[in-house]
Specification:
The chain has 470 residues and is mainly α. It has helices at residues 8-18, 42-50, 60-64, 73-76, 82-87, 101-119, 131-156, 188-203, 220-233, 237-248, 286-291, 299-304, 313-316, 347-360, 364-376, 394-405, 412-420, 456-461; strands at residues 56-57, 69-70, 276-278, 281-284, 296-297, 339-342, 345-346, 430-433, 439-443. The chain has 18 helices and 9 strands. It is globular, with a radius of gyration of 22 Å. The two termini are 25 Å apart.
């Protein structure tokens, strides 16, 4: 992607390229056999996609920027660090020599997908090299690349605005496996164009199954779901609904959390969840190292989930209900220093995309039925209350449900805030304050600080990248 005089970033990216071979842990029963970073056979290319490194991400800083969580007075008073600077949207967030793990890890995965897409046509003509197998590998690589670019453009770029998307800077677009290129930021429009093209090409493959062989291999339902997400972010609600329906027509199962607790403390916990279309986990280890504790749920999210008497499983399975630590994110019983989040592409999000599209078109009944179906799988029957959905209130209900379902989901709340801030009715000003009401920081709707800044090390490595305004 880029080079430095020390070569440190090149080493990181090349290590990422190597991750599908000798040094990478494989998912479940899939094991490596190739020791080459130069894939030549179909089996080599399949091993790139077999790596669980593709689904292990780290986008917690994006959730840290939102109103879904808060630092306690004690945590805030522990002094300056990366997490506190992110939490209150400071002018400078990154430490001078700190590697931007969101940027670097994403482009490392994109590099792997580019290797597949650019070299698979020259794969050895052996028995495994059939048109169907080759096309499925290409489709899965395209879906993975699209997921990462959709994350990147919404992390570092402005919310999609058709009036400015062609001039708004997005992120560098790289489609060939060149670790030494120094591309400038492509426009938000150009990045979305590639995302949509990749996904449409992937789902047009007739041999691609509805779901992959496991949670790390995407199928058509995942491709359609990401198309629905991308079009929702573009405010093209008709297209978003079409692709949401296409995904739901293939996979629409929900997990009843009233009968089965779902607590994703590790990647393997996603296995067996019928909702997951493409597994993604985000793991942070630094926060607990700094604070020796987890964070606390944001007040507005707590209120949305039902407050102190909430019976919503989305609260009780994630947050402490003890009066001594009420609302604290539960420690990971497997590794207390790891805070793990489920960032998967899954059926509930697709249902909510369709519900939002229906709500915006005035179909309160259709949207309400989707909400009720989801809620019945998250809240005990005796705690469910009847709702009167109308054209006037349905969008508010949908957005509230979306927030509850997709909190701590790798930045989806932040991306929603950015796109909703373009509406005078839906925009939200954020504030950081102490328990006594002292205001530490504010983030007005539409502020440039909604865009995550590039780290100094990224800017030094590639002088063609222009920093986001602060």
């Amino acid at each position: 992607m880029y080079k430095t005089h020390t070569g440190s970033l090149i080493i990181l990216l090349l290590l990422g390229l190597c991750s599908f071979c000798c040094g990478c842990k494989k998912f479940l029963a899939i094991t490596p056999s190739s020791q080459t970073v130069n894939p030549t056979t179909i089996k080599d290319f399949q091993e790139v996609l077999n790596s669980d490194s593709l689904v292990r991400t780290q986008f917690f800083p994006l959730d840290l920027m939102t109103d879904d969580m808060q630092l306690s007075d004690l945590q805030y008073g522990m002094g300056d660090n990366f997490y506190r600077r992110t939490y209150q949207w400071e002018q400078s967030i990154w430490n001078p020599a700190q590697i931007d793990f969101m940027y670097t890890n994403s482009y490392s995965r994109i590099l792997q997908m580019n290797v597949i897409l650019n070299r698979i046509g020259a794969a050895v003509a052996d028995a495994a090299n059939t048109t169907q197998v080759r096309n499925n590998i290409i489709s899965q690589a395209l879906i993975n690349r699209a997921w990462y670019y959709l994350q990147l453009v919404n992390t570092y770029g402005a919310a999609y605005d058709p009036a400015t998307a062609k001039s708004d800077p997005g992120v560098p677009l790289v489609t060939v496996p060149d670790a030494y290129a120094l591309p400038a930021r492509s426009s938000v429009e150009a990045v979305y164009t590639l995302i949509l093209s990749d996904l449409k090409t992937a789902v047009a493959n007739n041999s691609l199954p509805s779901k992959g062989i496991d949670i790390i291999h995407p199928g058509k339902a995942a491709g359609f779901a990401l198309l629905a997400r991308a079009y929702l972010y573009r405010a093209d609600y008709k297209a978003a609904q079409v692709y949401a329906d296409s995904s739901l027509n293939l996979v629409s199962s929900l997990l009843d959390q009233n009968s089965r607790a779902y607590v994703p403390n590790q990647l393997q916990d996603l296995v067996g969840n019928p909702e997951v279309l493409l597994g993604r986990t985000s793991t942070d280890e630094g926060f607990y190292t700094v604070y020796k504790s987890t964070f606390t749920i944001g007040n507005s999210l707590l209120d949305s989930l039902g407050g102190f008497f909430s019976q919503d499983k989305r609260f009780s399975t994630r947050f402490s209900t003890s009066r001594f630590s009420f609302g604290s994110y539960l420690q990971n019983p497997i590794n207390a220093q790891q805070i793990v989040f489920d960032n998967s592409v899954a059926v509930p999000e697709v249902l909510l995309i369709k519900a939002e599209c229906l709500a915006r078109s005035g179909d309160a009944d259709g949207a309400g039925k989707l909400l009720d179906r989801l809620r019945s799988n998250r809240i005990p029957p005796d705690a469910l209350t009847a709702r009167n959905y109308t054209a006037a209130n349905i969008l508010s209900y949908v957005l509230g449900e979306r927030r509850r379902e997709l909190c701590f989901h790798g930045g989806l709340r932040l991306f929603d805030l950015k796109r909703l801030n373009t509406s005078p009715i839906l925009k939200t000003d954020l504030m950081r304050m102490s328990s006594s009401g002292t205001v530490y920081a504010t983030l007005p709707a539409g502020s440039a600080r909604y865009l995550f800044p590039f780290s100094p090390i990224v800017l030094a490595a590639n002088p063609n990248i222009v920093q986001n305004p602060r």
